[in-house]
């Protein structure tokens, strides 16, 4: 009996071990299986990171509304400023399912590689990454597994295409009926200030950047470029992804392509224009730069191992771009309290805001000289010159602390400070201090960062596509070792 108990215990331990430590299979998972995997990742991630599984709402289904699960991963302390939020969304079109599995593997990779791969550790020490593998679980349930076709693309109960379901800045639609999924994304973005985002799709092979919408002032009403004031940044983001992907930038395209995507990137309106896209909404309403990443000619890629190997590095490099450009806080010069402001980079006709609570702002910019224009009711307008530098190994954000002077006071009290740093402690602010873990102390001489041995690529390297020839394969033996420990 005692022996039986011991055997049972072993079997139970083995089962638990498999549940927590087994590697994710390269196969498609149902919504419920996906939920269980995310729960498992939340637990395994907590061993070395801060992982949090949360839902931004429910799907539209009236029979079985499914939670819209997000897993947040970071190693940064809570309640500190200076940590950008990045989001990755998959399965917006329910029948484009590769991205949802890809994102599950990306989560596993981030957890496994933290403390072993320098760039992964750096990214998680300095970033909050929010991953939602499926924003359209109802559509996925309704889809087959076809490479082509439209079944399952929309939210089934509402017949709504989520990527046509957001407020369009250029073409307001007062009759827009929104799905619960789109509303959930909008509420999520009101609550969390995201800097960088990607929506993963399939059915083409291209990195698509805004605008998708038709130019309201243009001569042509369709299929001509409509570029944002931050087109240099968007092209850089798209090239970062395409050039580090082994196939995307090769111009091979897909059989169904009606246009050639030079370098594997395209402006949305130039490909085909439409209103109500999520990418345009992110940029126009929240100052968040989002790409639509089309990752496979087949909407249900049969070989998920290939999909993962092709996209692992691009996903990581893409997330790191949140650390390119300028950040800072805007404070009242007298009270040192945060001020909600309207911001703009000179010569770029695109306004963005800062965080109401912390006063923080972010803008991804390429290396160069810029002027930040700051406006707030009741304060003198402020113009701040700053420089964004390129870097080789680890990213550096230009960090500004801007004090605005109340317009009832003399302007001479306005002060600013501007430095280029990797996040420093700032003792002059009244918001929570910028405290960061000592990132270098987490690494050992034996760090396995062969995957990313090139470090953080410079702009010229990303543009030249030098990354394409770099390939790697991480193999973790933790599960085997742990199993041997358990049965020994
Ligand atoms: Zn799609």
Automatic annotation (TrEMBL):
GO biological process: peptide metabolic process; protein processing
UniProt key word Signal: yes
PROSITE patterns given in the database record: PEPTIDASE_M14
Record-annotated active site: 294 (proton donor/acceptor)
Signal peptide: 1-22
Keyword annotations: Glycoprotein, Signal
Statement: the UniProt record of this protein carries the keyword Thylakoid: no
Alphabetized GO MF terms: metallocarboxypeptidase activity; zinc ion binding
PANTHER family, per database record: CARBOXYPEPTIDASE M, PROTEASE M14 CARBOXYPEPTIDASE
Name recorded for this polypeptide: Peptidase M14 domain-containing protein
């Amino acid at each position: 009996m005692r022996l039986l108990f011991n055997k049972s215990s072993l079997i139970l331990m083995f089962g638990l071990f498999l549940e927590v430590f087994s590697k994710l299979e390269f196969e498609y998972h149902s919504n419920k299986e996906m939920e269980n995997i995310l729960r498992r990742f939340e637990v395994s991630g907590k061993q070395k990171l801060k992982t949090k599984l949360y839902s931004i709402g429910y799907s539209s289904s009236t029979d079985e509304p499914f939670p819209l699960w997000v897993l947040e991963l970071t190693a940064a302390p809570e309640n500190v400023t200076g940590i950008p939020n990045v989001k990755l969304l998959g399965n917006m079109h329910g029948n484009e399912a590769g991205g949802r599995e890809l994102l599950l593997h990306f989560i596993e990779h981030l957890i496994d590689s933290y403390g072993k791969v320098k760039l992964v550790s750096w990214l998680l020490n300095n970033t909050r990454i929010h991953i939602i593998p499926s924003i359209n679980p109802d559509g996925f349930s309704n889809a087959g597994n076809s490479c082509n076709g439209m079944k399952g693309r929309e939210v089934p109960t509402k017949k709504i295409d989520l990527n046509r379901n957001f407020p369009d800045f250029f073409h307001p639609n007062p009759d827009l009926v929104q799905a619960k999924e789109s509303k959930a994304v909008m509420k999520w973005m009101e609550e969390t200030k995201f800097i960088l985002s990607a929506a993963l799709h399939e059915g083409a092979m291209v990195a698509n950047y805004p605008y998708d919408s038709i130019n309201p002032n243009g001569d042509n009403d369709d299929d001509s470029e409509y570029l944002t004031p931050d087109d240099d940044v968007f092209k850089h983001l798209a090239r970062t992804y395409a050039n580090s992907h082994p196939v995307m930038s090769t111009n091979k395209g897909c059989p169904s392509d009606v246009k050639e995507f030079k370098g594997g990137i395209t402006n949305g309106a130039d490909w085909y224009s439409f209103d109500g896209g999520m990418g345009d909404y992110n940029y126009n309403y929240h100052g968040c730069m989002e790409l639509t990443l089309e990752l496979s000619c087949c909407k249900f890629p049969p070989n998920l191992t290939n999909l993962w190997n092709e996209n692992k590095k691009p996903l990581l490099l893409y997330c790191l771009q949140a650390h390119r450009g300028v950040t800072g806080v805007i404070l009242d010069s007298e009270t040192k309290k945060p001020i909600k402001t309207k911001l703009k980079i000179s010569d770029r006709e695109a306004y963005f805001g800062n965080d109401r609570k912390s006063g923080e702002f972010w803008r991804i910019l390429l290396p160069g000289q810029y002027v930040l224009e700051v406006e707030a009711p009741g304060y003198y307008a402020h113009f701040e010159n700053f420089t964004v530098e390129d870097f080789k190994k680890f990213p550096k954000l230009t960090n500004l602390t801007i004090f605005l002077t109340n317009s009832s006071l003399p302007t001479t009290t306005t002060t600013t400070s501007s430095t280029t740093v990797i996040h420093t402690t700032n003792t002059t602010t009244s918001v929570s201090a910028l405290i960061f873990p000592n990132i270098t102390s987490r690494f050992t001489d034996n760090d396995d960062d062969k995957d990313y041995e090139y470090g953080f690529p410079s702009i010229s390297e990303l543009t030249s596509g030098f990354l394409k020839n770099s390939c790697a394969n991480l193999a973790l033996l933790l599960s085997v070792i742990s199993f041997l420990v358990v049965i020994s």
